[in-house]
Amino acid sequence: MKDGKPYVIGIGELLWDVLPDGKKMGGAPANFIYHINHMGIYGDIISSVGNDPDGMELIKLIKQKGIPTDLIDIDSRYPTGTVTVKIDRSGNPEYTIHENIAWDHIHFVKSIEENLRMADAICFGSLAQRNTVSAETIIECLRGVDKDCLRVFDINLRQKFFTPKTIMESLYMADILKINEDEIIVVAEMFDSGKDEMSILKNISEKFNLRLIALTKGTDSSILYSEDEISSLKTPEVSVVDTVGAGDSFTAVLVAGLLKGDTLKSIHQKAVDVSAWVCTLPGATPPYTQQIKDILR
Q1: Which of 80, 152, 222, 281 could be bridged to 54 by S-S, CB 3.0 to 4.6 A?
Q2: Residue 176 has what DSSP assignment?
Q3: How large is the greatest C-alpha to C-alpha distance in the chain, in angstroms?
Q4: Average pLDDT of the residues of the chain
Q5: Pairing between strand 7-11 and 121-124?
Q6: What single-letter DSSP state applies at residue 111?
């Protein structure tokens, strides 16, 4: 808890998504925290940007969006991260993720230890673990949270930036796995987890002692799978502008609902509705409307 609210940390990449219509704040942890902060929860980002115009502009924008920047390092050695995003006819993004930038070099500092001890949930992925420096920091942070803190692994497989070792170690440290329809095929093959969907979910859950798996399947459906309960919902039909950040908003609603003690079915419905809404607008962090705020009540 922090200032009387549940406290959540997102750790990893922070960057500019360079889209066809201009650049927008990006990086799964930043998108996640943007949405979590709209749900009555206090969120922080642990990351790094360059000491350059892109970095200063990004810090300014993050503050404007109401997100604290205290745990974001300003690095004079490496530039601020950028990702070139192309959108196909269905609104699906194709990413070109540039390397050797600031969020590849997130250093663990003693000053964040108190924040880690206060955290009710921490969300991390595989992408920011492509570099040893950031990977070691993420592991150190996961070790630094309280035993009751929810460890959420939003797997986020991108290009060539993952290994079976990274995925396995992350899954063993996680309580919750967020994964999409393409990623689950890769993970199932890594760990010989079966062929049909439910067998894969069951085997991965048991192998890594996961509390919950959230599987999103684009325009088709999504599943929340736990040992005690399974929720399956169709994806709402909406006019898709792009799907950038939809998964991050889904994860944010999921974590917020778990921290608030909502039922799995209620959490799932809200996550589906919010992520569908994100798809109707450009970029990952659209301004929240009153309609969406009402859904989250």
Answers
A1: 80
A2: E
A3: 50
A4: 94
A5: parallel
A6: G
Q: Which residue has the tokens 């250093």?
A: 107
- Taking only the tens place, the pLDDT of each residue in 151-169 is 999 999 988 899 999 999 9
Q: Which residue type sits at 191?
A: F
DSSP letter for each residue of 115-128? HHHH-SEEEE-SGG
Per DSSP, helices labelled H in the chain are 28-36, 53-64, 113-118, 132-144, 164-173, 181-190, 197-207, 246-260, 264-279, 290-295
For residue 280, give the nearest of 88, 91, 25, 93 by alpha carbon.
Answer: 91
Residues 6+ apart with CB under 8 A from 149: 119, 120, 121, 122
The Cα 277–Cα 280 span in angstroms is 5
Count H helices and E strands in the chain, helices first: 10, 13
Tokens 């960057």 -> residue: 15
**CA nearest to 41, candidates 121, 138, 144:** 121
pLDDT for position 170: 98
Q: How many CA atoms lie within 13 A of 47 on its CB side?
A: 36
Cα-to-chain-centroid distance, residue 119? 16
For the chain, the structural domain boundaries read: 7-295
Answer whether CATH 3.40.1190.20 is correct for domain 7-295: yes
